[in-house]
Every structure is written in structure tokens, then in C-alpha cells.
Amino acid sequence: MIRLAARDLAVARGGLRAVEGLSFDLSAGQALVLRGPNGIGKTTVLRSLAGLQPAIAGTITAAPESLAYAGHADGLKSALSVSENLHFWADVFGGPGIDTALDRMNLRDLAARPAHALSAGQKRRLGLARLLVTGRSVWLLDEPTVSLDAASVALFAGVLRDHLAQGGAALIATHIDLGLPEAEILDLTPYRAGPVRRDARPAGFNEAFA
Ligand SMILES: Nc1ncnc2c1ncn2[C@@H]1O[C@H](COP(=O)(O)OP(=O)(O)OP(=O)(O)O)[C@@H](O)[C@H]1O
Fold first, then answer.
1. pLDDT tens, 155-170?
2. Which of 17, 43, 47, 53 best tests ligand 1's pocket when mutated (most atoms within 8 Å of CB)?
3. Nearest residue (CA) to ligand 1, atom 18
4. What's the Cα-to-Cα distance from 65 to each of 2, 23, 62, 210, rounded to whole Å?
5. Could you tell me the pTM of the whole model?
6. Residue 14 carries which DSSP code?
7. ipTM of predicted complex
8. 41 touches ligand 1 (CB under 6 Å)
9. Boundaries of each ABC transporter domain copy (predicted)?
């Protein structure tokens, strides 16, 4: 079962085409690792798939409300505690309760601590725990392991593996080995856009408000 399909996708950032002609299928149970040198457009592809900015060309097919995006920013409410943050997102997404997320991302002992008083790695664990309360099947992950120590990387790899085993899917931009040997690689290098094109910015789109 295909959970996310892209066909002949072209994406742009800052008015410049980054990637074009990208097609792939992401199936239930599959993890795809986006690779390519800095600046090639991994973040831009993920943002476009997540609907945070429009694609320049091509089609994206996914079930409604199946996508969950975790970008560089953790999106935390700093004054709220760890559990309040998770409750907030569980309410927004209407997903499962927060207990599994607290336990799986090793946040139980930090549940009452305000997000602003977490370390960088703890904040990242909370940002990733958010995925578990969305109840969404396709995870779009941009450098999910930044700030994580080796134990937390392994913890998250386990969470990802279980998500895949339950029929989920993940597209992950990462420069490190996640310890998921079953993950396939999607290298963006062959899809680097050519010379600047005049249609790189959609009419009426202002990135400042994306
Ligand atoms: N906020 C921005 N405004 C304008 N251009 C940007 C912005 N962010 C990124 N770019 C440019 O868009 C292109 C694609 O960047 P993107 O962040 O998608 O690459 P990436 O493959 O994720 O890079 P990295 O591996 O460094 O995270 C790059 O040429 C970059 O310079």
C-alpha cells in the first residue's frame, strides 16, 4: 500500500528551483532516507510534501491528514510542561494519549518540567515524542537526531522501527546512520535543478508567510 507518492516534483526555496523531476513512492512499512549534499534541497522537499510551501510542479498524493512533519524547530510551547505540550498536540491531532510517547521517548521523569527548562537533546526527544501523539502514518523528518546522544538515537530508531512495523512510513533527511539497515536511500543529487527558471516562485506566494 502506497502511503505517499510524488511524481515529477519540482521545489524551490528563496525563489530558486532546488530539485526537479523527483518521483518516488513511499509504502506502508517503508523508510526512505533523503540524502544529498548541504543545500541540495532535502528540507525544501520535506516542507513541500508537508504542505508548508507549494511545489513548483508535479503531484503529491497522500491520504488526507496522514502526514506529520518534524522540522528543525521543535515547535514546543516553552511555558508548558512536557506532558502539557504532548496533551496540546494530542488534542490538536486527535491522536492517542500521551503515555506511550512519554515512555517511548524516555520523558516520564521530565513530564512536569517546563519545556524551556529542557536541554537541547531533551527538547528534541519531546519534539519527536510529538509524532507519537499525532496518530499519523507518514512521518516527514528533517534531521531528527540533531542534539541526540547515541542512546537517544537508538531509542528513536526503535520508535521508528515500531512505527514501520505498524504500517507507518517515514521519509527522513539525515546525514547520520540511524541504525535502520532496512531503510532505503533516495539521493537527491540526480534531481538537482538546472539553471534558474522564471517560474521558480509561484504567483502570489510569499515565503515569509509560509
Ligand atoms: N530561508 C531561505 N531563504 C532562501 N533560500 C533558502 C532558505 N533556506 C534554504 N535556502 C536555499 O535553498 C536551497 C535548498 O536548501 P535546503 O535547506 O532545502 O537544503 P538541504 O539539502 O536541506 O541542506 P542541509 O543538508 O544543509 O540541511 C539551498 O540552496 C539554500 O541555500
1. 999 999 999 999 999 9
2. 43
3. 41
4. 15, 21, 8, 19
5. 0.91
6. T
7. 0.95
8. yes
9. 4-210
